[in-house]
Each structure stands twice: as C-alpha cells, then as structure tokens.
C-alpha cells in the first residue's frame, strides 16, 4: 500500500512515520509540507492512502482534496477544528486528533484497511461537502487552472454559470471551472450579495445595472461589464426582495 503524508509540521510527519514502522505493507513514498505539494504528489504517485492535515499554509486539507478527481483513502489529522470533527462524525470516516497515541493510530489504520475503497472515497466527498458548508472556506474558492492552483476570493466572482457536472466561475481575471453544483454555491454564498436568478446562473447583485423585461414573465439582467444574463420568474422575485424594488 503506497502512502503519502501531507502535513506542514515536521514533528507530526515524524510521528506518523514512526508509527507506520509496524506496518511493513505500507510504504511512505513521499512527504509534503502543504496542499500544493500534496496535489502534485497524489497526481504523480496515485497513492492508496494519505495522511492529511487540515490546517496548513496556502490551502487547507479540505481544499486540497477538492482538487483531486478520485481521492485515495484518507486519514485526516487535526489539532482542534471542531467543525471538522463534526463533519467526520456525520460520516463513516476516520480522523486522528493531535496529539494521538499509537493505540489510536492503530485503530485508524485497521479501519481504513478494512473499508471498501469505493465507499471510503464516497465518504470523503461527503465529509468535504459537510465541512465546506460550515467553515470560513466559503469566503474563497480554490480551483485548478491548467497545472496551477488558483485561490479566488468570493468577492471577485461576477457570476456563476452551470456547466454539466461543473460550475463556471466568471471573474475579471477569467473563467474557471469547479466540480461542484449550483446548489452548493447557492448554499454557501452570502444570500444578500449572490442571488440565483436562473437555474443556470448565480449573480453578484452589486454588478447589476439594469433589469429589462424579456419574453413572457422573464427578464434580462445587465451587468456593469456589459454581460446580459437571463432572469427567471422566480429569480426576478428574489431580486426584487433583495434590491427593494
């Protein structure tokens, strides 16, 4: 079993490696200091298991996992994040609360080894969904931009557009894809600033300069950058409430 340790604390990585010495069938193939390194290492080595810290520089462990299409089995490590623990407890996946003992470590290893990999991957996605809806991560979006990782402040988002299994994030710097649903963004974005005006569009209402009637009960929203977006009947009702018109 190939394993990668992703943690910005050298001591934490050392403890994990020491505990793993008892498991000759688990090989540590790389250590990473942050999520950027972690993404590259996972893409390169396709490990069976990763030990993943949550609070790290640059991007969190949760944000890093969102960039992986088919995440491996994961044992999360965390020092204090109560929101994360709640997310884990809501789903059948394991985590290690620092500092953790050898006995607690062994229990996590046994659980992850015995679980079906497909079910663990699904549970990992469930944990991510729960955690990101309840944390400060909602003030930014992390995406892959070619071979780079880009952090987009939510305030820079002009509008979101549905695109099959992805969402197009439109900003002044360009358009970026995120493998999430429109419902996900509708739930996490500040409702007074970002309104779902159509089943395919969520818009930053501060950029709307005009709303014109269109066919039947629909309307068109004109943004300050010249973009025109369709507004459904339901979306128009939401806009009137927020804009006070």
Overview of the structural elements:
With 245 residues, the protein is of the alpha/beta class. It folds into 2 domains: 2-134, Rossmann fold (3-Layer(aba) Sandwich), CATH 3.40.50; 159-243, Beta Barrel (OB fold (Dihydrolipoamide Acetyltransferase, E2P)), CATH 2.40.50.1020. Helices cover 34% and strands 32% of the residues. The protein is built from 8 helices and 15 strands. It has helices spanning 10-20, 35-45, 61-66, 82-89, 102-114, 117-132, 182-188, 233-243; strands at 2-6, 27-32, 49-53, 73-78, 95-97, 140-145, 148-153, 157-163, 166-171, 174-178, 194-198, 201-204, 208-213, 219-223, 228-231. The chain has a 5-stranded parallel beta sheet, with helices on both faces. A 5-stranded antiparallel beta sheet has the order 10-9-8-12-11. Strand 1, helix 1 and strand 2 (27-32) form a beta-alpha-beta unit. The longest helix is centred in the middle third of the chain and has 16 residues, at 117-132. The mean pLDDT is 89.
Count every helix, treating DSSP H or I runs of 4 or more residues as helices.
Answer: 8
Percent range of helical residues: 25-40%
Question: How large is the radius of gyration?
Answer: 21 Å
Strand arrangement within the widest β-sheet reads 2-1-3-4-5
The chain-level mean pLDDT equals 89
Q: Give the CA-based shape.
A: elongated
- Written as H for each helix and E for each strand, in order along the chain, the element string is EHEHEHEHEHHEEEEEHEEEEEH
List the domain count as a whole number. Answer: 2
CATH H level of the largest domain: which superfamily? Response regulator
Low-confidence stretches: none
């Amino acid at each position: 079993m190939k394993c990668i340790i992703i943690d910005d604390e050298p001591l934490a990585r050392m403890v994990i490696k020491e505990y793993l010495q008892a498991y000759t069938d688990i090989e540590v193939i790389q250590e990473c200091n942050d999520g950027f390194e972690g993404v590259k290492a996972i893409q390169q080595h396709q490990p069976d298991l990763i030990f993943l810290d949550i609070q790290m520089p640059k991007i969190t462990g949760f944000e890093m996992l969102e960039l992986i299409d088919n995440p491996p089995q994961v044992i999360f490590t965390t020092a204090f994040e109560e929101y994360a623990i709640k997310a884990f407890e809501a789903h059948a996946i394991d985590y290690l609360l620092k500092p953790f003992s050898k006995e607690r470590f062994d229990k996590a290893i046994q659980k992850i080894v015995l679980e079906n990999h497909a079910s663990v991957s699904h549970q990992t996605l469930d944990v991510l969904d729960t955690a990101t809806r309840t944390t400060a991560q909602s003030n930014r979006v992390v995406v892959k931009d070619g071979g780079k990782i880009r952090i987009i402040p939510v305030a820079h988002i002009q509008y979101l557009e549905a695109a099959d299994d992805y969402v197009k994030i439109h900003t002044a710097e360009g358009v970026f894809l995120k493998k999430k649903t429109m419902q996900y963004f509708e739930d996490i974005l500040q409702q007074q600033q970002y309104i779902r005006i159509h089943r395919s569009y969520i818009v930053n209402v501060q950029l709307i300069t005009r709303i014109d009637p269109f066919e039947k009960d629909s309307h068109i929203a004109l943004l300050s950058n010249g973009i025109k977006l369709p507004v459904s009947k339901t979306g128009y009702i939401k806009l009137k409430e927020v804009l006070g018109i």
